[in-house]
Each structure stands twice: as C-alpha cells, then as structure tokens.
Amino acid sequence: MSELDTPIRALPPLMLAATIAAFVFATVGAVVDGRAGTVAAGLAVSTIVAIPLLRVVIVGVHWLRIGDRRFAVVAAVLLAVVGLGAILAVL
Length: 91
Description:
Layout: H1 11-31, H2 34-66, H3 69-90
Helix pairs in contact: 1-2, 2-3
C-alpha cells in the first residue's frame, strides 16, 4: 500500500462526531421553541456546511505531509474558492 492510500485515522471518528453533533443540533432546533431552538438550528446548518470543508482541510494536510503537493494545492484552491464565495455572498 502506498503512502497516498494510507487511511487517516482521525478522520472517521471526527466525521462521526460532527454528524452526531449536527443531528443533535437539528433535533433540538426542531423541538425547542424560541431563541434556543433558532440557535440550535443555526448550529446544525453551520455544522453540516463545515463538515465537508473540515474534511478537505484534513485530507489536504495529509497530502502535504506525505509529499503530494499537487493534491494539497488542489485542496487549498478548493478552500480558497469556497472562502471567496462566502466573502462575495456577504457583500
């Protein structure tokens, strides 16, 4: 097995924890009324948006550590495009 194919050990537990957190936030947002429910729903959406971006960061760092700069640059460009899109959406 090449280094590129080595699994990232921290990734599955982190993705599972983030998915559970999003589920809990969404459930609380659906059940609780008022400001707490609105905040929980907002946290659910934020978590769902952040999970794929966090995965790209982790995989990009992994690629950089094993020396595959080409894929690391692709991950960085993807994050830059998403960041630029977020900035343009705010303006």
